[in-house]
Amino acid sequence: MHSKDRTLLASLGFSDPDKKNPLHDLACVFLSQDDVLGEIAKALFNTKYHDEKDFVAQETVDSTFTRIDRKQTEYILSKGEGKYKTTVGFVDVYAECERVIRQFGYRPEEPLRSYTMNRQSILIEAKIHPCQIGDLIRQVRLYLEYFPDYSKPLPVAALAFPINETAAGQLKQAKILHVHLGQRFADFAAKDKQQWKPSDASVTF
Questions:
Q1: pLDDT beyond 90 at 71
Q2: What are the start-end ranges of the E strands in the chain?
Q3: 28 in Cβ contact with 121 (< 8 Å)
């Protein structure tokens, strides 16, 4: 999230220590890779962070990730129309994917009762510098407030710094999946730096 001066997020006093950090942009690129998004989606669908209230019982539902259908970095989240349109903020990574939901009977041993395809969106907020977890949760909840009820994304916090059990508990209670940007991301960033070279422009004068 690069909160521009005129966003609702900035007007509410949310600071952005990552605003001029190139590692933040690299984190967004890293997190938007299909293989990384796929791993995050699988982790989301295999946890109890999201509600399965439409089904008989939590333990009778099997949800499996299939593929990433759409993805975008710096996704513009806005509210209102026309002259009343306001930018709420910029979601670091927004993705839509498909998953298979299988519902069994009241007991795990009962046969399959239904098989459906479901589109599910994911919202990822990346943080490079340490931040207050409470501020992060409020930011994510603000974003979710402006998505329609029928298509609210599952939230993810991708952090490049370690957090303690208390902070991890806060994220879990808020139903935000915690992802750590560790050595794999560090290797990705180092490789990008080593391979840097000027790119050809579409038009050169």
A1: yes
A2: 61-79, 86-103, 114-127, 154-159, 177-180
A3: no
